[in-house]
Amino acid sequence: KVDKPKTKETPSSKNETSLVQTISGVATKAEKLLLTTKSVVSSAMSDAMESTALLYESILPALRVLRALLLRAALFLARALATVASLMHQTCGYALAEFSVNSTGFVYTFFFTS
């Protein structure tokens, strides 16, 4: 019978083993935290995109109505300015050389000549 030499565990080897176990535990918890964070962020992004799409769909009709109202107001303003230009020509002698309304609206050009 041959006796194997006993390896005596020193306090420093116990500390090293404990440190390795602690680091391993921390790494495992950090990995779980990262996976949870990724899941939460992914879910939040999905919810945000869905709510943005719903918001856009809900305000789109209102934006179309607003655009139509603004175009009507712009055409009304253009007619009023044309009337003012005509009155200026009749009363002050100014001639309206050009008056244009862009088809997209909101672009008005006046050139007055005396």
UniProtKB/TrEMBL annotation:
<protein>
    <submittedName>
        <fullName>Uncharacterized protein</fullName>
    </submittedName>
</protein>
